[in-house]
Task: inverse folding
């Protein structure tokens, strides 16, 4: 049995595969019925975010004749029994697409609606905020092209109208919608409730000639589902129509007359065309979305866009019942904010592909980089008819195109043709180490698992086998980023781990134990079905959502509140050659095989963050390291020795951690910014017990902290030197940007949406204070600024005296993190009142005491200004770059990343509200 680390109880049960998703900012979303729960794996019990799905209004796609209700193509619409919308599919965007640089959550409901949500970072509430409705935009597009139909086949208005424009009384017109049928009420042997909250039946009270039947108006549901409501006016004969439609905005007991006026006004202002049953079914299928999937970040190389928009975007794929896939491009925001959520999110439809002839049930993305300047998107689509196809899209065309294209994607392989087993889930990966290789795992409703490998450039294809290992439908698949390990789950409540060796798949066990793991109450016997899995950003954990068997639960204390649970399991990277039963002589209670697995897994996870395209989200890695630090600290030191020593040559396995760390301090100026950020996060972990609440500026004091474990001073000194090096790099970056000719020529672009150098006067003072430790080249840069060589071009370098926000006293510059004003003297008491203030961790300027600031949960620093994105991708010190080369362009965008940790900064929220925990 796999060992889980923690569990989160849910109040509603999932209903569809892939009901759980893990974001790049370390939040987990779980779709369970009409509720979507968002939680942090660092604290899964509370706090939590919430999305409650409301009923949606119908689309006016047309009306049909009453006699056409018996047409076969309308039977699925008539027989649907959806009472309230439920979440069918969810998908997280990459990090950086929400207004606060977080992730957007795409939600597809059983009504066929697709909406985007963001976190309520400025609303201070648990309910997430809807930002855009994709389905409305899709409807307007389809309406503009007449749903792909020939215009002469459409009847523009109701048939049966007389010359005055009135509807013929003998003509019966039907408009299908998400209605509640009287037939369903008859089956339940209950009378229709005309004051029901979600549905209502209205009778318009005009007299009708004897013998004629009241017209029935049944409006269309958003997903093409609905059931037939047949109703006849009783009692007084009525001339007009009986309408049965969605009344989600009408409370119980509302006046029916007010509802009648609403519907009458809508019919007068929005007369719909008369369509055939085939047209109605086709239009309904086009608007019925089933699956959503975000691509990774797509970057276009070259200069910035003329309108100032970023070059980075992501593509949202939406698959529907008609077999079409629509592609929506979303750019990164031009600027990030934590003060207001009104930064627009503008999806643009850039493609509409007829991928299959039946329902789209699975979509998976990958990125194929043929060269440093050309990127292609790989898309795998699966259908309920069992077919699977692989498509290749031009990323450049999708990024820059302003028109809807049907040729953006080309078919490169039909993996499987139509079969009897529908596709339930898929996972595609393009391994980083072999970019030409595409590995695809396919899960079917029959429980079978298929794996295939494709090489794009050579257009070759090979099958890695079909495995009938699950007894019921597969509900979740997830590859690791290198394409070597696969995780699968099924509705038979099974969770399995696989390793891909060459062209064959072998099952491997989950780890039997983890040091210092805390298992909660065992409820495994009460589990009923499994509805999906998701892999953590560091790929050390897998989250699984399962429903409970209510018959196995305590009927008083659990049955009504324990509907499902999300569990988090540790994973390891198995190798077939590692023994698992040999006892270790060095660490009691663990085997050699277990420790080797954990060592290789953690080392791989730390190493894969060398890729600057990967956001720094190390929560799972740090959780594992903290557990090892408590249980077997010597083993942890051994892992860190191997990780750090792999950066340099000439080190032997027996070298001490102190020797390696002293060497690292001498090589800081040669290290990449990404590795320095990783090193700082690990240093804080290793010194967390001695002074976890130490202020950041205290690290720069030469006093020693208590040495309880022998080498903690080494970690503290390394952290102080590393942060000083990063501060020196950013000061050099800023000063060089001022002196750069490219900055002067593009000065007009620094308009608030792009980065511009600020705080140069404070930076000059910081260099002066640290004159003895500063690099010689940095001193020369500061001297050029001080001599006035660039002052005529940039007035920002002129020194402006700073004053206290509380008493207006002068504030001298003494520290880059904190400040203290000179104070106000109270003559009667003979005292001086001073105030402690904060400085921006980026600009070193005083920050406002009332405006919200960006906060780093790792080093607990605050920032009012944001650094440029290119600073975090630098391979070395900017002092080694000639500023006259034009590399310091100001038209790049700012990123809310911590200058010293590299992780995502966010608004500091109360403990009762959900916050992301990237570290």
Result:
């Amino acid at each position: 049995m796999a060992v889980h680390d923690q569990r989160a109880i849910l109040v509603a049960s999932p209903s569809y595969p892939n009901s759980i998703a893990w974001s790049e900012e370390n939040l987990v979303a779980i779709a369970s019925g009409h509720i979507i729960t968002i939680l942090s794996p660092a604290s899964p019990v509370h706090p939590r975010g919430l999305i409650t799905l409301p009923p949606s209004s119908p689309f006016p796609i047309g009306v049909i004749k009453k006699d056409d209700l018996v047409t076969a193509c309308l039977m699925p619409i008539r027989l649907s029994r959806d009472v309230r919308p439920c979440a069918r599919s969810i998908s997280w965007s990459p990090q950086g697409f929400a207004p606060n640089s977080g992730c957007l959550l795409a939600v597809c409901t059983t009504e066929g609606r697709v909406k985007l949500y963001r976190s309520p970072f400025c609303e201070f509430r648990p309910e997430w905020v809807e930002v855009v409705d994709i389905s409305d935009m899709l409807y307007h597009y389809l309406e503009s092209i007449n749903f792909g139909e020939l215009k002469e086949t459409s009847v523009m208005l109701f048939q049966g109208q007389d010359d005055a424009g009135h509807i013929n009384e003998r003509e019966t017109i039907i408009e299908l919608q998400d209605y509640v049928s009287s037939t369903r009420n008859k089956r339940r042997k209950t009378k229709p409730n005309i004051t029901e909250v979600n549905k209502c039946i209205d009778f318009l009270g005009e007299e009708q000639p004897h013998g004629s039947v009241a017209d029935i108006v049944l409006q269309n549901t958003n997903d093409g589902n609905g059931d037939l409501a047949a109703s006849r006016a009783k009692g007084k004969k009525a001339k007009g129509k009986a309408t049965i439609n969605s009344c989600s905005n009408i409370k119980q007991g509302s006046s029916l007359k007010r509802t009648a006026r609403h519907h009458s006004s809508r019919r007068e202002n929005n007369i719909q065309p008369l369509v055939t049953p085939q047209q109605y079914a086709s239009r309904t299928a086009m608007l019925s979305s089933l699956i959503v999937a975000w691509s990774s970040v797509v970057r276009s190389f070259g200069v910035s866009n003329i309108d100032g928009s970023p070059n980075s975007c992501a593509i949202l794929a939406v698959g529907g019942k008609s077999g079409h896939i629509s592609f929506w491009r979303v750019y990164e925001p031009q600027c990030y904010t934590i003060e207001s959520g009104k930064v627009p999110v503008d999806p643009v439809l850039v493609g509409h592909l007829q991928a299959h002839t039946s329902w789209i049930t699975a979509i998976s993305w990958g990125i194929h980089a043929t060269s440093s300047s050309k990127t292609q998107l790989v898309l795998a689509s699966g259908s309920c008819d069992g077919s699977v196809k692989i498509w290749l899209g031009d990323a450049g065309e999708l990024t820059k195109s302003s028109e809807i294209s049907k040729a953006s994607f080309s078919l490169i392989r039909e993996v499987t043709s139509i079969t009897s087993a529908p596709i339930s889930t898929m996972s595609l990966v393009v391994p980083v180490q072999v970019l030409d290789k595409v590995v695809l795992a396919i899960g079917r409703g029959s429980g079978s698992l298929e794996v295939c490998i494709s090489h794009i450039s050579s257009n070759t294809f090979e099958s890695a086998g079909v495995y009938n290992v699950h007894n019921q439908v597969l509900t979740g698949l997830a590859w690791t980023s290198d394409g070597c390990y696969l995780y699968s789950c099924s509705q038979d409540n099974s969770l399995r781990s696989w390793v891909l060796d060459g062209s064959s798949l072998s099952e491997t066990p989950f780890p039997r134990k983890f040091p210092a793991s805390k298992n909660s109450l065992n409820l495994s016997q009460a589990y009923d079905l499994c509805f999906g899995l998701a892999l953590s950003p560091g790929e050390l954990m897998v989250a699984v959502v399962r429903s409970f068997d209510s018959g196995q639960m305590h009927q008083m204390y659990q049955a009504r509140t324990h509907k499902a649970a999300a569990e988090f399991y540790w994973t390891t990277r198995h190798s077939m050659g590692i023994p698992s039963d040999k006892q270790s002589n060095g660490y009691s209670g663990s085997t050699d095989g277990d420790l080797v697995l954990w060592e290789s897994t953690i080392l791989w996870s730390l190493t894969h963050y060398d890729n600057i395209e990967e956001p720094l989200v190390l929560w799972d890695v740090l959780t594992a390291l903290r557990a090892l630090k408590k249980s077997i600290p010597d083993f942890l030191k051994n892992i860190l020795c191997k990780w750090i020593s792999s950066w340099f040559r000439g080190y032997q396995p027996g070298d001490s951690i102190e020797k390696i760390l002293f060497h690292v301090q001498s090589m800081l100026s040669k290290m990449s910014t990404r590795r320095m950020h990783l090193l700082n996060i690990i240093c804080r972990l290793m010194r967390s017990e001695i002074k976890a609440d130490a202020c950041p500026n205290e690290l720069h004091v030469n006093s020693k902290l208590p040495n309880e474990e022998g080498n903690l001073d080494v970690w503290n000194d390394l952290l102080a030197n590393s942060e000083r090096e990063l501060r020196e790099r950013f000061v050099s970056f800023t000063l060089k940007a001022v002196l750069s000719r490219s900055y002067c020529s593009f000065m007009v672009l620094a308009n608030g949406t792009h980065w511009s150098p600020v705080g140069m006067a404070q930076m000059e003072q910081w260099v002066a204070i640290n004159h003895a430790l500063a690099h010689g080249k940095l001193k020369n840069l500061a001297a050029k600024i001080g001599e006035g060589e660039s002052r005529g071009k940039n007035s920002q370098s002129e020194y402006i005296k700073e004053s206290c926000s509380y008493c207006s006293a002068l504030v001298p510059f003494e520290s880059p993190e904190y400040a203290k004003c000179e104070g106000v003297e109270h003559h009667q008491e003979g005292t001086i009142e001073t105030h402690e203030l904060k400085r921006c961790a980026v600009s070193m300027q005083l920050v406002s005491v009332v405006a919200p600031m960006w906060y780093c949960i790792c080093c607990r620093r605050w920032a009012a200004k944001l650094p440029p994105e290119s600073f975090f991708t630098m391979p070395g010190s900017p002092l080694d770059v000639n500023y006259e080369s034009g590399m310091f362009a100001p038209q790049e965008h700012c990123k809310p990343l911590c200058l010293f940790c590299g992780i995502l900064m966010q608004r500091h929220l109360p403990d009762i509200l959900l916050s992301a925990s990237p570290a």
